[in-house]
Design a protein that fits this description.
The structure holds 2 protein chains of 2 kinds.
Chain A: E1 5-10, H1 14-24, E2 29-33, H2 42-62, E3 81-85, H3 87-96, H4 110-117, E4 127-131, E5 136-139, H5 140-149, H6 157-168, E6 184-190, H7 193-196, H8 211-226, E7 250-251, H9 254-259, H10 265-268, E8 277-283, E9 285-286, E10 290-291, H11 297-313, H12 316-322, E11 328-331, H13 333-340, H14 345-355, E12 357-359, H15 360-368, H16 377-382, E13 399-401, E14 410-413, E15 421-426, H17 482-489, E16 496-499
Parallel strand pairs in A: 1-2, 6-7, 11-14
Antiparallel strand pairs in A: 4-5, 6-8, 8-16, 9-15, 10-15, 11-15, 12-13
Chain B: H1 4-11, E1 17-20, E2 44-49, H2 55-69, E3 74-76, H3 89-94, H4 96-102, E4 107-113
Parallel strand pairs in B: 2-3, 2-4
The chains are: A alpha+beta, B alpha/beta.
């Protein structure tokens, strides 16, 4: 546009700013704020603005000539051999290039990569999307290469593609992946393929150990490093302050869910029971292991409120401000059985929505820690992101809901059926909210179906209704039909999901994925 | 003296691996940044803010200082544009170019990355 612009960036983010600048192809003029503004006194902040920001702002806005475009790096061509050597030599080379995640990788030889490519009908050079923050192409080839490196099996390729399709959905907000909260993506695999690929959904659900779960999780983190540029030091792009490492992929005990009359997570997302689906969502923290007991549902649900709800309460403002917040509760199968005796999944959501509260003043205090404007409940109500309940009174100690919408709560039945443990996975609040609409307002028309992915519009999907329930207490009307479920799931942003393509290896072999 | 296993290992060369590039092509068009203004006096400066990291305090100081230095400088505050990192981010960014033109913006200060 020809408008001179200066960006204010804290010291810790200067390298990432350079990386982003390169990724979008435009040089930035930067005014560096030294240190962290959140811990400076008002006087110190003003001093730094005067001493450091003002000269840089003036220089940036009045420089005589614009900064020239940065020269384009000379890089290898896709599908080219970049190194040959022994295993140790390959490991060292990849590590030095920042292409590995610190663990040994499976060398991505052409033969191994080709083995993966035989499990998709897509052209190796087909591009799913151009991904931030380095502006690189998420190509089928790059998926295969990184899948090899992560220790996946070739038959995982359709799942790998679906994972990348999910994160390429703008609602996933992959550009926030390297931000300070350091959220970690969580892959949930639904449908028959979970068992076909031997994904663990029982004891040790989220531990490394089963090849499918572990390598799928590792693959995504590796892909975020190599294609998106989110690397910790000595790399530049990942500004996660503390963080934790990759989540293994999750699968649900779908047979158990069906046995107790609950829809599967995939069905919650608007897909048929027999569809193979990948969902990817963010996890910014995990609750304590939540033990609950008793034969009645209420005891378990109240424990979820008291433990998981309390854990989530700190971040709830983030969800309110953005209009949606997709956290996940993994309910142990035995617990789910006890609950399902009285409640549907929607009943569970409703209970948590009603009972998980926090004093309004506390939520506002939590919000102030990131140095933003005061959490303005009135404005959020006016904007339609939260209900008028939040401003029912002016009492700062009034209880306000942690979950703005019950349908935001995802539920997966998994873990050790012989134990009484559940766990909560708290999401960051992605700007899936950008496609979240004020409560009760219909979404814009869903995107046209694309190719084989007939449920692609479920990328902007949000759970609204569970399946029909035969249980006694249906607090939220169940969807009348699958079509209603899909219609409802179009309304709001949701963790992004993609249907797994059916793939038959291009030699004679039974179909792996349905 | 080497044992038989060591001798056998010495006679077997380690396998060599020719490996493919794990990254992917960048697909961006590069361009240079706009030149600055010779003088900010009388110009319109627009503020963009992600509503975090004390940008409200910073922008207040910046406005004050630039006003003292450049007669006639005008500011269009961040509230006019909305939260560039909030729920309407995509809509705001999509409409930003038009809005800047509509407001006859001469320069932009954007923040806060911290």
């Amino acid at each position: 546009m020809g408008i001179p612009t200066v960006s204010i960036v804290g010291t810790a983010f200067m390298k990432q700013a350079a990386l982003v600048s390169k990724g979008i192809g435009v040089p930035f003029a930067i005014a560096e704020y030294p240190g962290a503004p959140m811990v400076d006194s008002d006087d110190e902040l003003r001093r730094k603005v005067d001493v450091h920001l003002m000269p840089a702002i003036i220089a940036g806005l009045t420089r005589k000539t614009g900064q020239a475009a940065a020269p384009v790096d000379v890089e290898p061509a896709p599908d080219s051999v970049v190194f040959s050597g022994t295993l140790d030599a390959v490991e060292k080379y990849f590590h030095d290039q920042l292409w590995s995640d610190g663990l040994p990788v499976i060398p991505p030889t052409r033969a191994r990569v080709d083995a993966f490519l035989r499990f998709t009908t897509r052209d190796r050079n087909a591009v799913i999307a151009v991904l931030p923050q380095e502006g690189r192409e998420a190509s089928i080839l790059s998926i295969a290469v990184n899948g090899v490196m992560a220790g996946c099996k070739p038959e995982y390729m359709p799942v790998l593609i679906a994972i990348i399709e999910a994160i390429a959905d703008p609602h996933f907000r992959i550009e926030d992946s390297g931000s300070t909260p350091a959220w970690e993506p969580l892959i949930i695999v639904s449908g028959p393929i979970a068992q076909e690929l031997d994904l663990n959904f029982g004891a040790g659900l989220m531990r490394a150990g089963r090849q499918a779960n572990t390598s799928l999780g590792r693959f995504l983190r590796m892909y975020l490093r190599n294609i998106c540029g989110y690397r910790i030091s000595p790399g530049d792009g990942d500004k996660g302050s503390i963080g934790y490492t990759f989540n293994v992929a999750m699968a649900e005990n779908e047979a158990w869910a069906r046995d107790i009359g609950w829809p599967t997570f995939g069905m919650d997302m608007g897909y048929a029971q027999e569809d193979n689906v990948v969902t990817v969502q963010s996890v910014v923290c995990i609750s304590p292991p939540t033990y609950s007991s008793g034969a009645e549902a209420t005891g378990h649900l109240q424990q979820f409120v008291d433990v998981i709800g309390r854990t989530f309460s700190y971040w709830a403002y983030s969800g309110l401000k953005r209009g949606c917040w997709h956290s996940l509760i993994v309910i142990g199968p035995s617990i789910a059985t006890a609950i399902a005796g009285e409640c549907s999944k929607d009943d569970v959501r409703r209970y948590l929505w009603e009972k998980a509260t926090i004093p309004a003043e506390m939520m506002q205090r939590f919000a102030r820690q990131t140095g933003g404007l005061e959490l303005d409940f009135q404005q959020l109500v006016s904007d339609g992101y939260i209900s008028a309940d939040y401003i029912a009174s002016n009492d700062p100690q009034r209880q306000v809901r942690i979950f703005a919408n019950p349908q935001d709560i995802g539920i997966v039945v998994a873990g050790d059926p012989g134990r009484n443990q559940s766990r909560g996975y708290m999401a960051h609040a992605p700007a899936t909210a950008s496609n979240c609409h004020p409560t009760g307002t219909p979404c814009a028309a869903p995107r046209a179906n694309e190719g084989r992915h007939n449920r692609r519009d479920a990328h902007c999907a949000r759970l609204r209704c569970g399946a029909r329930s035969s249980r006694r207490h249906a607090c939220i009307p169940d969807a009348a039909s699958a079509r209603d479920r899909v219609r409802h799931t179009r309304r709001h942003g949701r963790p992004c999901c993609a249907r797994i393509e059916s793939a038959t290896r291009r030699e004679t072999r039974p179909t792996v994925c349905r | 003296m080497k044992n038989l296993q060591d001798q056998m290992n010495e006679n077997q060369p380690e396998p060599q691996f020719s490996v493919l590039w794990p990254l992917a092509k960048r697909s961006i068009k590069t361009q240079g940044a706009a030149a600055g203004l010779p003088d900010l006096s009388g110009k319109t400066v627009c503020e963009l803010w992600d509503y975090i990291f004390r940008g409200d305090v910073m922008y207040a100081v910046i406005r004050e200082r630039l006003t003292a230095l450049y007669p006639g400088i005008k500011f269009i505050g961040y509230k006019e544009f909305g939260n560039i990192h909030g729920p309407k981010q995509r809509d705001i960014i999509a409409g930003l170019a038009d809005k800047l033109r509509e407001l006859k913006c001469d320069a932009v200060i954007s923040g806060i990355g911290a």
